[in-house]
Amino acid sequence: MSVLIAPSVLAADFANLEKEVKMLNTSQADWLHIDIMDGVFVPNISFGIPVTEAIKRYAQKPLDVHLMIVQPEKYVEAFHKAGASIISVHIEACAHLHRNIQQIKSLGIKAGVAVNPHTSVAQLENIIQDIDLVCLMSVNPGFGGQKFIELTYEKVRQLKAMIKASGSQALIEIDGGVNQHNAKALIDAGADVLVAGNFVFSASNPPEVIASLKAL
Ligand code: DX5
Ligand code: ZN
Q1: Is the model's pTM score more than 0.70?
Q2: d(Cα 30, Cα 45) in Å, to the nearest integer?
Q3: Which whole number is the average pLDDT over 193-200?
Q4: What CA–CA distance (Å, rounded) separates 90 from 92?
Q5: Among 173, 167, 214, 165, residue whose Cα is nearest residue 192
Q6: In ligand 1, which atom is closest to the CA atom of 200?
Q7: Phi-psi bin for 10: left (phi > 0), alpha (psi -120 to 50), beta?
Q8: Tell me, which fold does domain 4-214 have in CATH?
């Protein structure tokens, strides 16, 4: 399977969302990554349910919703209704992660777990068989355009080994600071999905950047 590319709409021009989403529709992007921040779990606020619905109105690709919020169980259904195909919740925000994952799966969509840079992937051992995606944060969540944390390579390798040993089908998604310098090494380490925000949207030709990642 070739690597999946999920451009992060957080880095798009919010005043021209229709144009940006249509650009992604005609590009080689596989998913649209949707970053939801509540100003509590992370020190920033992005956008919420109405904007996700607006993106969905034009999007022809799956919406990969990354909830950087506390008490995600309160909003999972609303994001499903807004058009999410995948919803990831943070392990650090969930005291009852297994219940949160079952809630997402009961809606008939894919469930993911996101892990902060300081969280060991070993903490996923008892949930890995139940999930479709691990969103491995390669920056501290809250902002686009941050520097990639090098420890991520080792975490990808550890996670890949755990997934293989357990027979889980979970995909490994890398989120934060992905660019031309680290993408190939991430794929070689075992990454299945690359999120890219600034690397895609700050380029003069975003579809070309997406195609270059896709070709790795
Ligand atoms: C960070 C977000 C990321 C971010 C990635 O909190 O979860 O998805 O948009 O942006 P770049 O690729 O610019 O680091
Ligand atoms: Zn994200």
Answers
A1: yes
A2: 25
A3: 98
A4: 5
A5: 173
A6: 12
A7: alpha
A8: TIM Barrel (3.20.20)
Q: Is the CB of residue 8 below 6 angstroms from any atom belonging to ligand 1?
A: yes
What ranges do the domains of the chain cover?
A: 4-214
Distance CA 2, CA 216 (A): 8
Q: Is the pLDDT of residue 101 over 80?
A: yes
35 among known catalytic residues: yes
* Dihedral sign computed on CA atoms, order 84, 72, 41, 161: negative
Given a contact cutoff of 8 angstroms between Cβ atoms, the answer to whether 100 and 126 are in contact is: no
Nearest atom in ligand 1 to the alpha carbon of residue 140 is 6
Nearest to 84 by CA among 51, 114, 118: 51
Query: Does the C-beta of 200 come closer than 6 Å to ligand 1?
Result: no
Asked whether 80 lines ligand 1 (CB < 6 A), one says: no
Query: Please, where are the H alpha helices in the chain?
Result: 17-26, 49-58, 76-82, 97-106, 152-166, 183-189, 198-201, 206-214
pLDDT grade, residue 122 (50/70/90)? very high
Q: Which residue has 């996700």 as its token pair?
A: 52
Residue type, 47: F
Model pLDDT for residues 6-57, shown as the tens digit of each residue:
999 999 999 999 999 999 999 999 999 999 999 999 999 999 999 999 999 9
- The one catalytic residue in 30, 38, 64, 175 is 175
Q: Is the CB of 196 under 6 A from ligand 1?
A: yes
**CA-wise closest residue to 115 among 79, 164, 66, 184:** 66
Could you tell me which residues come within 8 angstroms of residue 108 by beta carbon, excluding any fewer than 6 positions away?
none
